[in-house]
Amino acid sequence: MAKVSVMRILMGFAAMVMLLEVVAAVDHTVGAPNGGWDLSTNLGTWASSQTFTVGDNLVFRFDSSHDVVEVTSANYDSCGLGSPISTTVSSPATIALTAAGSRYFVCGRGSHCNQGMKVQIDVVAASAPAPPQTPTPTVPSPPQTTTPPSPTPPTNDSPPPPPTGETINPPSSAITLKMTAGTILGFGFLVMMLLPL
Ligand SMILES: [Cu+2]
């Protein structure tokens, strides 16, 4: 019986890990949602609207009048097609972003690159647990014996005064991350409880 419980916990944990991986890797469909890998999409604007993180994928979807050529920075600037890093002619072309740094993609057909069908992808490192830092010395706060709080009438319906000098607006991405982690944990435990054994 104990063995079964351990199995259940392990499987639930595995489900959580898998979910985390699914959430962590993002597929960026180039130009989406309002455009694509074509001549009419402002690919620079699209790229700057995205955050490319190591582990994400680029997905180029295109018709047969285009292809995807990964080139060097120099060739990107000049639309040169010599010695390409890779060439993909069939859609979709999925490019794994495996390292931090810049990657350069152009269309190799006709003069499409010179017409603007090119995109630079700046990949940032995945947010990892912060490396161990030298502990900041905790400065003991001086005893606050100065002004006592202004006496507020003890009414029950007066809301507490807002805390001053404290920012309570963390970046929305942090909120999203926490919510996602919470959702994953909750879902993982749900899976753990529902696993047929
Ligand atoms: Cu093209």
Automatic annotation (TrEMBL):
Organism superkingdom: Eukaryota
Protein name stated in the entry: Uncharacterized protein
Lineage: Eukaryota, Viridiplantae, Streptophyta, Embryophyta, Tracheophyta
